[in-house]
């Protein structure tokens, strides 16, 4: 077994139900996720698998009247689901902060970018205007927005998408949070700009010892910068392991199939491997494995929800038939 | 890739683009969205256009379809120059050129049932109900969707299903040429693979000729026979797919390739991270448009614009210092 490490964040059996006009959606169905201090943790999955729902739950951003949450989210020893609203306000932005996919819709078009960043300091650190301005210059420089004195007075529309995302990052890291949740931070950007932003995130994480929960649907990004990764499917985490392992010895059939369906340069095949069918609708509480209808290894056992099993060092997967074909390493670890 | 050489008729050019330009006035200046683009598309061929946002790839697709007037240059469709035709003259050609868009949700009317959206295309071009029905059932079989899809409305379907139907809609009139503008960019990887396989399938059955626009190198490499890389309104490199990816010659293509995050943590290559953003397409300085971000840039690059020149094995590159 792996040595016990102090986890920064621990999500245990998180369930989230949402009330919608079409009925109750079981958006999260028992999510288990741990984030270690200083790591970049990738959270991957297809649309609707619950990636963003998980991150919103950590920040408690759901409409409380229309959702039901069960489970625990332990952050630095305290359960955030039980925390008071006031406590959550100090957590948000100061200890955990978040950046989103589309920087243009997250920034206020009527305020200069400097004013928006300075507001964070005024709110959380009770700085005077002058102090806040000074700190804003520093943080702008840190995220590579130069020269800060000129940029301070610019409005979001004057900046390119890449620079806007840098502003978002500056705002998010202003109070040196211990956890940054980045929800598809580069999806709206071009590849060359994406490379710049990823490098910045990696640098900041190392520099500040900040953990990052990086939500993405792109396995390439995971391979580039993540230390560990969790794969989500139908509101559950189906596999967690370190980045190398997922690409070489994925244990869950879904993770394996998902990675195989990415076109790669020099692959030279006529048809790409695909996953038949579509993800299930989440209106009914699933008793069986949610991947069952699409899985090539299905049998009677799969009619019961598979528990999360340890299948290697720091490697867990929720499947009755952990793939054993090409992963001798995992078998050894189980023995 | 080269599985499809037998599907291409090199003798018959469907599209010839010659020195195509599209300028937009911007105050007292001009934005050069397309600045002298030339290439051919043979029957049965899929040509890929890659580049970052704002490089002119969508403008190129739409110009060829003549969705708007072009500033200069020729677009020869099956032997006829359509670049200066007016609306009425264009009508018979429209039927032969179709388009598939990025977002399947916005390319269907949410209040119109799928069946009606698909038959409408045939009706506009005077197909009889019988012909339309026959064609539709054939296409539904090709895209592997049941007939009862036609009774549904777009909101009930998934992105992958809708994109299949958008492809079917583009094929109803048996077009000679299709422009697919980022057809898989809005889809999840597993669905993306399904749609790419469908395109591979259809090109075999129907010998489709296609201009495939994408910002993703991996997708283009998988599906296209030839690839053109665009930067600020110009083609900077163009070659048969295999040749291009084996011997990248333009520094921009090289940087673009190295910026793609590879889904393989053990393949650590030297990454070239480009400084800064794409320059503003209004009022570009003289010389090579990539000069400001290029690591091989010399005085010559800042003064003289490099021309797209053939360098053997069908490989064209526009650079003063191509990579050997």
Q: Can you describe what's shown?
A:
The complex is a heterodimer of chains A (335) and B (324). Chain A contains twelve helices and twelve strands. With 335 residues, chain A is of the alpha/beta class. Mean pLDDT of chain A is 89; it is low at 325-335. Chain B is α/β, with parallel strands linked by helices and 324 residues long. Helix content of chain B is 31%, strand content 24%. Chain B is built from ten helices and twelve strands. Chain B has helices at 57-64, 87-94, 114-124, 129-142, 159-171, 189-206, 217-223, 241-246, 251-259, 299-303, and strands at residues 9-26, 29-43, 46-50, 72-77, 80-81, 97-100, 177-181, 210-214, 226-231, 234-240, 309-310, 316-317. An eight-stranded mixed beta sheet of chain B has the order 6-7-8-3-9-10-12-11, with helices on both faces. Chain B is globular, with a radius of gyration of 20 Å. Chain A binds chain B through residues 46-47, 160, 162-163, 190-196, 198-199, 217-224, 243-244, 247-248, 257-259, 261-268, 270-275, 278, and chain B through 1, 3, 52-53, 158-160, 188-194, 196-197, 200, 215, 217-219, 221-222, 245, 255-266, 271, 273-274, 277-278.
In short:
With 335 residues, chain A is α/β, with parallel strands linked by helices. Chain A contains twelve helices and twelve strands.
């Amino acid at each position: 077994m792996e040595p016990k490490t102090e986890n920064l964040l621990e999500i245990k059996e998180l369930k989230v139900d949402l009330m919608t006009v079409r009925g109750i959606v079981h958006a999260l169905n028992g999510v288990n996720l741990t984030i270690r201090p200083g790591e970049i943790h990738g959270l991957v999955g297809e649309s609707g698998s619950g990636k963003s729902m998980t991150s919103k739950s950590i920040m408690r951003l759901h409409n409380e009247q229309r959702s039901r949450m069960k489970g625990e989210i332990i952050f630095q020893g305290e359960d955030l689901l039980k925390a008071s609203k006031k406590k959550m306000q100090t957590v948000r932005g100061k200890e955990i902060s978040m950046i989103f996919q589309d920087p243009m819709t997250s920034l206020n078009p009527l305020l200069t970018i400097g004013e928006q960043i300075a507001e964070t300091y005024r709110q959380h650190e009770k700085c005077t205007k002058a102090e806040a301005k000074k700190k804003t210059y520093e943080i702008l420089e840190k995220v590579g927005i130069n020269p800060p004195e000129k940029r301070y007075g610019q409005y979001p529309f004057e900046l390119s998408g890449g620079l806007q995302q840098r502003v978002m990052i500056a705002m998010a890291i202003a109070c040196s949070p211990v956890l940054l949740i980045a929800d598809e931070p580069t999806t709206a950007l071009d590849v060359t700009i994406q490379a710049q932003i990823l490098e910045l995130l990696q640098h900041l994480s190392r520099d500040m010892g900040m953990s990052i929960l990086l939500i993405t649907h792109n396995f390439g990004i995971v391979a580039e910068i993540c230390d560990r990764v969790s794969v989500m499917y139908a509101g559950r985490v189906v596999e967690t392991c370190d980045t190398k392992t997922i690409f070489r010895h994925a244990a869950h059939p879904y993770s394996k199939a998902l990675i195989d369906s990415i076109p790669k340069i020099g692959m030279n095949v006529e048809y790409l491997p695909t996953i038949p069918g579509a993800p299930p609708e989440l209106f009914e509480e699933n008793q069986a494995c949610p991947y069952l209808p699409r899985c090539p290894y299905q049998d009677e056992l799969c009619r019961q929800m598979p528990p999360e099993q340890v299948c290697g060092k720091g490697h867990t997967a929720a499947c009755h038939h952990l793939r054993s074909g090409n992963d001798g390493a995992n078998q050894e670890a189980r023995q | 890739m080269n599985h499809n050489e037998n599907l291409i008729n090199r003798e018959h050019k469907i599209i010839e683009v010659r020195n195509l330009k599209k300028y937009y006035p911007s105050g007292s200046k001009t934005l050069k969205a397309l600045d002298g683009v030339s290439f051919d598309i043979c029957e049965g061929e899929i040509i890929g256009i890659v580049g970052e946002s704002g490089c002119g790839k969508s403008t190129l697709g739409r110009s060829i379809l003549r969705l708007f007037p072009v500033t200069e240059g020729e677009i020869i469709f099956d032997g006829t120059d359509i670049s200066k035709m007016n609306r009425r003259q264009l009508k018979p050609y429209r039927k032969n050129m179709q388009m598939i868009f990025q977002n399947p949700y916005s390319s269907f009317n949410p209040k119109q049932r799928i069946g009606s959206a698909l038959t409408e295309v045939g009706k506009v071009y005077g197909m009889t109900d019988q012909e339309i029905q026959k064609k539709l059932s054939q296409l539904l079989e090709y895209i592997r969707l049941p007939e009862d899809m036609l009774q549904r409305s777009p909101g009930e379907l998934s992105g992958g299903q809708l994109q299949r139907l958008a492809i079917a809609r583009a094929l109803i009139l048996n077009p000679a040429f299709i422009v697919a503008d980022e057809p898989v960019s809005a889809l999840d990887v597993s669905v993306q693979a399904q749609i790419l396989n469908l395109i591979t399938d259809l090109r075999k059955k129907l010998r489709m000729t296609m201009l495939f626009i994408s910002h993703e190198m991996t997708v283009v490499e998988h599906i296209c026979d030839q690839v053109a890389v665009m930067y600020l309104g110009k083609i900077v490199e163009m070659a048969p797919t295999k040749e291009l990816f084996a011997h990248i010659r333009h520094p921009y293509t090289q940087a673009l390739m190295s910026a793609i995050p590879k889904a393989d943590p053990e393949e650590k290559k030297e990454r070239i991270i480009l400084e800064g953003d794409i320059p503003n397409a209004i009022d570009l300085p003289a010389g090579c448009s990539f000069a400001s971000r290029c690591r091989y840039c010399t005085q010559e690059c800042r003064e003289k614009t490099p021309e797209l020149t053939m360098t053997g094995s069908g490989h064209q590159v526009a650079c003063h210092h191509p990579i050997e």
